[in-house]
Amino acid sequence: MPGHIEDYALIGDLQTAALVGRDGSIDWLCLPRFDSAACFAALLGDEDNGHWRLAPAAGDTRSRRAYREGTLVLDTFWDTESGTVKVTDFMPQRDRMPDLVRIVEGVSGSVPVRSEIRLRFDYGSVVPWMRRSDGHRIAIAGPDAVWLRSEPEVPTYGKDFCTYSDFTVSQGERVAFVLTWHPSHQKRPRRIDPYAALAQSVADWEAWSAKCRYQGPWRDAVLRSLITLKGLTYAPSGGIVAAASTSLPEEIGGVRNWDYRFSWLRDASLTLGVLVAGGYLEEAVAWRDWLLRAVAGDPADLQIMYGLAGERRLTEYEVPWLPGYEASSPVRIGNAAVDQLQLDVYGEVLDSLWISREHGMAQEEHAWNIQRTMMEFLESQWREPDEGLWEVRGERRHFVHSKVMAWVAADRAVRTLEECPRLGGDPGPWRAMRETVHREVCRHGYDADRNTFTQFYGSRELDAATLLIPRVGFLPPTDPRVVGTVDAVRRELDHGGFVRRYTFDDSNVDGLPGREGAFLACSFWLADALYATGRGKEARGLFEELLAVRNDVGLLSEEWDPATRRQLGNFPQAFSHVGLVNTAFALSHGDAPP
């Protein structure tokens, strides 16, 4: 059975990723891309749905693990009665085809080790045909082929549709396993030297990490988050997936299970800011360019998310043969929210391009033309109700955050023309729109009796997204309405000291049964808002509590359950790590409030 969500570590090659459990089992791997069908899907079922466990054969073992500093290379140490072994897991940045490398090294004594691998293509549903060839075990089914070899070669045998290797390593001995995927109609992929690949991977990651600008008190946490964001990047396009997994539940046993292996526009401005602040301008440019390619076209057709290369069709369907993580069903592939109307994305796109220009990225003429076209569309549409930032599956409403982001779109368009009038355009209508939106939000989205902005017009429900009002410049942090909103969100959306996304009551705003945990990104937003409103000590205290819920290798999922003290939701979650980095930079800024 799969472990707890926080039991996993991430390894990847900047095109896909694997989740490795504390027990040495890889329970999730999609090949060749993040959004491809999984060949190891035990995470959402059991071992029969595909996994690869590599660990000491004896049961009396204790393990400890850590990433090599500044890398995405994972070392797990196993202590047994007869000695200690180390298993190193990584995926080298690929030349053509993806490779997964696992190296067993004897540290002391002499330890029997077992490799147990069940390949199951198409999300655990297809058992491949296995054969031997030239020192390899080859698994083939339909379009997929996987080659498995060891170096030096160790005996393997098959039993019950599983491939085993039993061997012993003594101090100083090493055995490397290499699993390589390729399309089944193509020739055998080129072999890699696993030990040379390890050295190159470590060197590549260390060189990348050396660029990190952050030198504050939380450098280790910030760097690990930046490495995680890099690990969730699809290098060929520059797109960043929201998470490496699908259908990890927001409530154990519930139906709030979504596919997050796509790129969301809502993450764009926050991610761009993090990459630029961290010193990673090249990645920021690639993300900006991905954004421009994805949103090109009719602004009426703008989507809230896209595929890794900007694909638009992300059809959602259910996978009935997988029971779901801890019986949390259904398991979903694709995401129907792609068809929703979320007006906030226009503000997020214009804010992202504003940020990129402010940090010296070249302003392409076609980028401004795209923004002008978006503003023309938004001028006529911003008054409409929508599904909002949180992709509710209930009725459309006039969400306050959506209107605030419409204000952001108009504001950034006006400021861009004020600074660069040569770009062309009339800022007059956008100024008028900016003023109108601001006036309307303050009139209809603000509860004067409770001194707080609400989730949608005329409601009493609250929404943690209103914590972003000072960050985007809609109101200054000193405004009493901002302070009141921070206090109300902190009080009414509290969940074990952290923050829920929005109010859960009989109104059933999101149209779904059940509840969810504390949303980690929103909890980081609260820390930012506390700091901005002059409560630095409280902000730092909350930030330290958030850091404490990371797992043993520094990773965060989407949510946290304070009752069971478990991580919830897809993992690792880019939005959570973006929040961590943003808050660390804010709290480390010398000019910020005490």
Automatic annotation (TrEMBL):
Hydrolase is among the record's keywords: yes
Residue ranges annotated for the GH15-like domain, each copy included: 219-584
Record keywords: Hydrolase
SUPFAM superfamilies hit by this protein: Six-hairpin glycosidases
GO function terms (MF aspect): hydrolase activity
PANTHER family membership: GLUCAN 1,4-ALPHA-GLUCOSIDASE, TREHALASE
The organism of origin for this protein: Streptomyces pathocidini
Protein name (Swiss-Prot/TrEMBL): Glycoside hydrolase family 15 protein
The keyword Transcription appears for this protein: no
Pfam families, per database record: Glyco_hydro_15, TREH_N
Domain Trehalase-like N-terminal span(s) in chain numbering: 4-139
